[in-house]
Amino acid sequence: MFETLTDRLTSIIKSISxxxxxxxxxxxxxxxxxxxxxxEADVNFKVARSFVTSIKEQVMDEEILSNITAGQHxxxxxxxxxxxxxxxxxxxxxxxxxxxxxxxxxxxxSGKTTTSAKLAKHLKDSGQAxxxxxxxxxxxxxxxxxxxxxxxxxxxxxEAGTEVSAAKVSIDGYEAGKNRNFDWTIIDTAGRFQVDNExxxxxxxxxxxxxxxxxxxxxxAMTGQESVNVAQDFHDRIGLTGLVLT
Length: 246
Fold this sequence. Notes:
This protein has helices at residues 2-17, 24-40, 45-59, 62-65, 70-86, 112-125, 140-153, 166-179, 197-210, 226-238, and strands at 100-106, 130-135, 156-158, 184-189, 214-219, 242-245. By secondary structure, it is of the alpha/beta class. The chain has two domains: 2-86, Up-down Bundle (Four Helix Bundle (Hemerythrin (Met), subunit A)); 100-245, 3-Layer(aba) Sandwich (Rossmann fold). The protein has a six-stranded parallel β-sheet with strand order 3-2-4-1-5-6, with helices on both faces. Helix 1 runs antiparallel to helix 5, helix 2 (24-40) packs antiparallel against helix 3 (45-59) and helix 8 runs parallel beside helix 9. The chain is elongated. One of its GO terms (biological process) is SRP-dependent cotranslational protein targeting to membrane. One of its GO terms (molecular function) is GTP binding. Its main location: cytoplasm. One of its GO terms (cellular component) is signal recognition particle. Residues 98-245 form the AAA+ ATPase domain.
């Protein structure tokens, strides 16, 4: 998806990059094609509209349009706006002075369990003490998967099987990590094939029990615009602090 969008935008912008004096008509025609490319790539229409509006506001200046390098200026503005839209700054996890928790949430098949292990390894490699908690008490296979991944990356795993509630496993896992002076405890929760009240009620209970430092939603990048709706549903119920695209 990103490769296709990149090719389209490169082609569109290339057509204007070597032009000198530009008119508003030139700008409008180019931005119309940019907007179309974004929409065809399943970019949310609000994001596409905001993107092209911001570019137009930055380039619609008589002095700029009459300059012999006007086309190059449009290219630069578009490039900068892309970086801004995609998130130009690197943002680290929020860290309190003592024990921190990350609640990992998402739908089935999003890569949540694998991402939990990858995040744990990343934090471990940065010199921090990390533990994993298997809070998907609905699927023994999920606990087994996280156990295998934890062994592979050398991370301690807390699990209590499937006969206890997800909230209790989360609380006990949090306390276990706290007693071992872990900097981070990452809690892998159960996913569903769709957002439902049962899932959200369980997550709300866990959230109230441990008051996590971070709540990260893991989303398959190929989900497209539907991921916005999924994120909104989760955010409305438990308050997300970030997203991970897989």
